[in-house]
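User: If you would, consider this record:
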Amino acid sequence: MISQAPHLAAMEQAFFSFLVPVPGIYDFGVIVIILGLALDGLAGDMPWLFSRISHPVVWIGRLISFFEKRLNRPERSDGDRLFRGAVTVLIVLAVAGFLGGLVQFWALQVPSGIVAEIFLLGVLIAQKGLYQHVAIVADTLEHDGLVAGRMAVSMIVGRDPASLDHAGVSRAAIESCSENFSDGVVAPLFWFVVAGPIGLCLYKAINTLDSMIGHRNRRYLYFGRFAARLDDVVNFIPARLAGALVCLAVLISLGFGAGNRAWRTMWCDARKHKSPNAGWQEAAMAGGLGLSLAGPRQYGREIVQDPYIGDGRRNASPDDIRAALRVFVLACVLNGLWPVLIWMALNRSVS
């Protein structure tokens, strides 16, 4: 095996030291990822803990709300509100980065810091929680009827649930599963791999900022614009990775025909979505399951005339939700594998 030049090996070690900054970097990094993902898979949202203490995302949300109430004044000019929103983003990111840095520094010093990293990853990734919320919609819609199904889906989507029929509730649940696979699962892991706990905490702060103030309504159009654009940037690569993982999961679980359809739909229809990122995984899921997702939707009194993504059936059912969840589970497994493959390749190259 050809050995690397010393300066290249040093650069590689420095870059991937973000993964977990301790001796034996590659081995510990993979252990943290495997155990962190396993922790979330087993414990999920940990209601037994976070019913007693606030979840880290709740802390971020409170900080955002504190500055938003004080800085987002309607009497200010659009430019001033844009500036104040950018200041809010920078302050929140400074706090989140500092806290992530503490965990990263802790892992440099003592073995217990590795445990903290595992816990942080397990808490800030949302595999099991997302699965449970979407599965509840399928079970509720099937066994308790449309009204209960609407109430269940309203917990995971922002559209008006009263406007949804059985197929609309099912499509909304599948869309939420697809979109949040990137935001809640792929992107947190991606930024943890790239920049360790600092990257993970910064990403969750940006994602929370976007969900709270990144809206295109009168109140947040300018104040939240910087947060929304920043969220688009940090999700650019993870969203496309998420789409590819969904395609691969469809190929493995449903066969070549479905996998090919998922891939073609992703490339043809991803850009139809109003978000530059959310369409990739949603189009892959639509193609893989033979559905049409998105389309016109109602938010309060406003009807958004979005195009359909995918050219399949619109009459989705709870069985389609469960099919999407099976794809989601396999995609989560594949998501945990790519950092391991990088680790194996790096170990092979330095041996």
Notes: Residues 1-26 have pLDDT under 50 and may be disordered. The radius of gyration is 21 Å. The first strand starts at residue 293 and ends at 294. Residues 166-213 form the longest helix (48 residues).
